[in-house]
Amino acid sequence: MHTPRKRFGQNFLIDDGIIHAIVNAIHPQAGETVVEIGPGLGALTKPLLERLPHLHAVELDRDIVARLRKAWPAERLTIHEGDALKFDFGALGHGLRIVGNLPYNISTPLLFHLMVFAAQIRDMTFMLQKEVVERMVAEPSTPDYGRLSIMLQRRFHLEWLLDVPPTAFNPPPRVDSAVVRLIPKASAEIVPLDETLFARVVAAAFSQRRKTLKNTLGSLLKPEDFNALGIDAGKRAENLAVTDYVAITEHLSNLSRPA
């Protein structure tokens, strides 16, 4: 019997109907490189391996790693023991299909980590806290729209697949969950940018959510810059679309280039 560990944010999926709905949504095929993050007690691992000859898994909990190694031979299940936040997903090749019931306490930083490998990923299907999925898919000028929405929507097409109640887990979390799919956008769909500067602009804009852009972006943009961009400095960060943040980043990049 494995006792769920609080520090790993462990809530194990036990509802067969939900499990099959997720696996059907993933629709894994032989020959694909599928990677499961945090397999836990194997709720998704088992049905995935019923459809796949081989699966990769990234797991931090040593007890679970030992249990998984007993359950499946290495040629069926390759276990990468360690922290998914530090794992080099790029080392597994291209066309990666990444899946998992993500620990809620690391879901946002993990999504940012995975963004680095977007060019090598075919798609990602994750169970997350419903509140996080709401933020991921949120539209401008709504309360859930923020830094996570912008950073992910610039790089991925997002699809909310299904809702999952707390009763589908042991122990039941105190929150609702949802399953979301992320498909990396083709390079033609993404304006090439200074990624570090883009992240800095978005983080600065949302650093004080209640304040206007004149305050939050005042150190980066002068009144004439706002005018040139056609952006009202009296608006708040949540009122701007992803394309506006792209335009701001391009403008700043052009300003810093020698004439």
What would your notes on this structure say?
This protein is α/β, with parallel strands linked by helices. Helix content is 35%, strand content 19%. The strands form 2 sheets. Strands 4-3-2-5-6-9-7 form a 7-stranded mixed sheet. A two-stranded antiparallel sheet has the order 1-8. The chain is elongated, with a radius of gyration of 20 Å.
Task: Please write out the topology.
Layout: E1 12-13, H1 16-26, E2 34-37, H2 45-51, E3 55-59, H3 62-71, E4 77-81, E5 96-101, H4 107-115, E6 121-129, H5 130-137, H6 147-155, E7 156-164, E8 169-170, E9 177-184, H7 195-205, H8 213-216, H9 223-229, H10 242-256
Parallel strand pairs: 2-3, 2-5, 3-4, 5-6
Antiparallel strand pairs: 1-8, 6-9, 7-9
Helix pairs in contact: 4-6, 7-10
In a few lines, what is going on in this structure?
The protein is α/β, with parallel strands linked by helices. It is built from 10 helices and 9 strands.
What tags apply to this protein structure?
two-stranded antiparallel ribbon; alpha/beta; 10 helices; 9 strands; seven-stranded mixed sheet; 259 residues; disordered N terminus; 19% strand; 35% helix
Number of helices: 10
Uncertain residue segments: 1-9
Percent helix: 25-40%
Q: What order do the SSEs take from the amino end to the carboxyl end, as H and E? A: EHEHEHEEHEHHEEEHHHH
